[in-house]
Specification:
The protein is about 5% helix and about 55% strand. The protein is mostly beta strands and about 400 residues long. The strands form 2 sheets. A 16-stranded antiparallel β-sheet has the order 1-2-3-4-5-6-7-8-9-10-11-14-15-16-17-18. A two-stranded antiparallel ribbon has the order 12-13. The longest helix has 16 residues. The two termini are about 15 Å apart. The N terminus is likely disordered.
Amino acid sequence: MVNFLGATALLLIAIGTRPALAQEATRSERSLQSQEKKEQTSPEADANSAPSIVPSEQEEQPEEKKKLGGAGSIVIAPLPISSPAVGSGIVPAFAYIFPLNAKDKISPPSVVGAAGLVTNNGSRGFAVAGQLYLKENTYRITSAFARGNVNYNIYGTGTVDGLKLPLNQTGQVFFAEFLRRVGWKFFAGPRFLTGHSFITVRPNNASNFPIPSDVGIETTLTAIGAQLTRDTSPNRFYPTSGTYFTFTSDFFSQALGSKYSFQSYKTTFNKYASLSKNQVLAYNAHFCATGGEPPFYGNCVFGTDNELRGYVAGQYFTRYLLATQLEYRLVLPKRFGLVAFGGIGEVIPGADQLYGKQKFLPGGGGGLRFQLSKKYHVNLRVDIAQGRDGHTFGLGIGEAF
């Protein structure tokens, strides 16, 4: 549930930083998966798979009311957000969690929801989204729509190192995906993304900064793609074992009405291991690549996918990006927790790009956790991280990966 609502917020950010970031909607789906086979299902598993982000009336009901076959649940939460890309503010969110078919005891609950975005740098927006699970977790349908006005910066490197150009981007995006279980806990299927935006330069003193060719042009981007994913972790809110893998590809084409023709590929692999009852070691690897002729925000954007904390989104727009990190998680008494993390990454721009050059990017830091929902172990996340170019402060709901 947490990651689902977070995805609607990320869709808002995608309007201003990267339409391809709507791929993040697929990442959040793994937070709602449950066991696939009927013989693995039990009343206890059903209760633990029902997501929540705050202690709600569902947690106070008798045990028999918590089964997936019971009544739906309404969740209302003001989610805090603190992002170098869009500033600090709030994401007011509403969601309704419900069993699509009361006789289906295997499928995870379906979810429909809405979220807004208000930050201190003037960014505004909203998103509506839904995830439906059908036929005993055989099919999964995801759809989302977001519209907003986002203020953000892009940063110069090389000859214009240290400069930044403030931009305003307004627009909307629609995303849809249909996945089918194909065996061995794998899901695969097609996806569709379309959106349009308009970029302007905000008042600034960066007179020597090269202006992107996309500024002042109404841009439409449309893509068809595919996703393959597998998740074996028992609890996506706070995974203690298992693995998660996903691969997505999106093909933007002028034949579909897109202004630009290019391709976007992303893959993520996570592994989790319990060191003891209260200690978890989590590993993450991430790779992104683009081909063709994308707009600057259609490239891989370092700092937007939690691939390595400590970097401001907007500083590195590159054709290729890879990163790997390790995080130690410790549960403390009174709902508190601590984490320590570190990793390395690298960005490799294309030969025709105005911004960036190949760089080796280390990063690391620590953070504090507080359980908003003790039952489902959903954490409020506060992280401070140091990167090559400076430090970042991050606030969010749920683990970074």
